[in-house]
Amino acid sequence: MAAERGRPPLTERRRQETRVEIAETAAALFAGRGYEATTVEDIAAAAGVSLRTFYRYCSAKEDALTPLVTSGVGQLVDALAAQPADEPLIAAVEGVFTTPMSERRLADAEPGRALVGLMVGVPALRSRWLAALQEMRERLLPVLAARTGRPADSLEVRLLAGAVLDAFTAAVEHWAARDEPEDLLALTRRALTFLRLDEL
After folding, report:
1. For residue 135, which of 95, 128, 145, 158 sits 20 to 30 Å off, Cα-Cα?
2. 2 — pLDDT class (breaks 50, 70, 90)
3. pLDDT tens across 154-184, in order?
4. What is the pTM of this model?
5. Could you tell me the maximum CA-CA distance found in the chain, to the nearest angstrom?
6. CA 61 – CA 41 distance, rounded (Å)
7. Is the pLDDT of residue 118 over 50?
8. Phi/psi at 29 (nearest 5 deg)?
C-alpha cells in the first residue's frame, strides 16, 4: 500500500536512512577533525556500521557526503516545481525558502554552512559538489520549461537554468564562507535580482 501511495518500501526507506546517517556522521567528523584526518574506519565506527556496510553505500570516503547534497538538491527543485508556474521567478524562489522544511533547515544553519564549506573547500569533495550542481541543472530544465512555455532542451531554458544555478551557487558559497553571513534568502534574492532574471 505504501508503495502505491508513492512512498518507498520499508527496506528502501531504511537504506535511505542509513545513507543519511553515514553522511551526517561523516560531515560531523570532517568538520571536527578535518577531512584528511578522518578515516573510513572512523566514520563507520561513529555511525555504528561495519566497514562492509559503509562500502555498500559509499564507494569511497569522498562519496560519504553525497546523500546530503543530492537530497538537498532534490528538495529545492521539487519545492520550486510546486510554486505557481506564472509566478515571477524571484517570488517563486522566496516561496521555496519559506516551505516548512526550508525554514527548519535555516533555523539551524550551521550544519548546512559546514557542509557547503567542506564540499567547496576540500579538493577531493569539490568534484562531488560540482556533480550535484550539474544534477540540479538537469532537474531544473523541465521546471523552468513549464514556467517559460519553451521546450526543456531549448537554448533559452538551458541558459536560464544556468543563470539560476549560478546565482544560487554564488549565494550559497558566499553564505557558507562568511563568519557572520547574511540571510541566505536575502543573498539569493540579491543574486537573482542582480542578474535581472525576472526580466527574462
Report:
1. 95
2. very low
3. 999 999 999 999 999 999 999 999 988 888 8
4. 0.80
5. 53
6. 10
7. yes
8. -70, -45
Quickly list DSSP for the chain. Answer: -TTTTTPPPHHHHHHHHHHHHHHHHHHHHHHHH-TTT--HHHHHHHHT--HHHHHHH-SSGGGTTHHHHHHHHHHHHHHHHTS-TTS-HHHHHHHHHTSHHHHHHHHT-HHHHHHHHHHHH-HHHHHHHHHHHHHHHHHHHHHHHHHHTS-TTSHHHHHHHHHHHHHHHHHHHHHHH-SSPPPHHHHHHHHHHHTTGGG-
Q: Is 148 exposed, middle or buried (0-12, 13-18, 19+ CB in 10 A)?
A: middle
CA–CA distance, 161 with 140 (Å, rounded to integer): 6
**Residue pair 143/149 in contact by the 8 Å Cβ criterion:** no
Q: Is the pLDDT of residue 96 over 90?
A: no
